[in-house]
Amino acid sequence: MPAVVQQLNDQGAKGSVRMRPVGSNSLYVNPQAANDKYSYKEFTLTFSGRDGWDGASNALLQRLEDEGAKGYVLHHLVGETHTLDDSLNAIRKASFILVKNESQPVTYTYRKFSFDLMMPADFIAQLNAWGQEGYRFLNTELGLSPSVNAIVVKSSAAAGATYSYAFEPIVSDPKPQLTSRGQSGFRYRGYFEYFANRNGQPVRGVFNTYELDSSKPAAVAYRFSDEMPGGPVDINTPEGLARLNDQASQGFFYSGLSVPTGASGGAAMFFADYAVYVQGALLADLNRGGAVLFP
After folding, report:
1. pTM of this prediction?
2. Which residue from 71, 86, 227, 246 has the highest number of Cβ atoms inside 10 Å of its Cβ?
């Protein structure tokens, strides 16, 4: 982990932000219209078994609040480990990476809510209610807590901005859906694996999640690599990276988002084999963590 954080900071000092892991490598993007620099830090929560879940959830929120006051926002969950202590009690560790824009004076505040008793429509309603207060859907606790909490964040640099959310069903051809939502200013945030246990009856599903930022209401255009010369791109090759940079020079960045095309057993199982390029600013990816260029 120290080597990973060092690489992140080396790139951040050059103005580059990690978008996502690519095999054993990482893909970075540099928004060249800005001269901002970024720094990263990692922290680990340690807690014991089921009894420690709620404590870990509260500890995460408190740590995010403390670091948010210093200008750090959650980048992504690194991973979890499970071990046993000398008394055979389950010990879990969860590590997280935070990112800070060193060039912008900004602070972040957080909220969380449990949606294990909510239907999907109720969940969206809660996101939209807090979105109207300026809170943006950041992610869920990614298995940290059995109460399936969602985390939202508010930036001091986005005063007056509000956020609206929509779920869409998984479809075999997501291009028309992306295009239609984009025309209304909604950006694709990734797919959301929803699970609730309302009244003891499990509710499970996978949805595409879209976000509308009131400060950026203009239509959003998408491009798809299978409709470009050369077909789907392999970003692990110099040729693939050159194609990414060609699109970037035209204002379209490689989103790195996996778009599901089918679901099985309530979990996303099949994905589009083409890359999606999106016009405009970077977002946090609900599925992988990664670039966070919030205002």
Report:
1. 0.88
2. 71
Angstrom distance (rounded) from CA 54 to CA 157? 31
Q: Give 268's DSSP letter.
A: E
SS3 28: strand
Residue 95 CB-half CA count within 13 A: 11
Torsional sign, CA 9, 10, 15, 21: negative
- C-alpha separations of 178 from 60, 119, 220 in Å: 33, 24, 9
Report the amino acid identity of residue 213: D
Contact 96, 74 (CB under 8 A): yes
In tens, the pLDDT along 24-59 reads 778 888 876 668 899 999 998 887 766 567 778 888
pLDDT digits (tens, 9 = 90+) for 105-146: 889 999 999 888 888 889 999 999 999 999 999 888 766 666
Are 245 and 235 contacting, i.e. CB atoms less than 8 angstroms apart? no
As a whole number of angstroms, the distance between CA 165 and CA 184 comes to: 12
Residue type, 137: F
In the numeric block, the tokens 């963590």 are attached to 289
Whole-angstrom Cα distance, residue 271 to residue 67? 35
Residue 220 and residue 253: Cα distance in Å, rounded? 12
E-strand stretches of 116-274? 136-140, 149-155, 163-169, 187-198, 201-213, 222-224, 252-254, 260-264, 267-271
The DSSP letter of residue 280 is: S
**E strands, 49-135, in order:** 72-84, 90-101, 108-114
Q: What Å distances lie between residue 236 and 14, 19, 26, 210, 275, CA to CA?
A: 21, 14, 10, 28, 13
The neighbour count for residue 287, using CB atoms within 10 Å, is 20
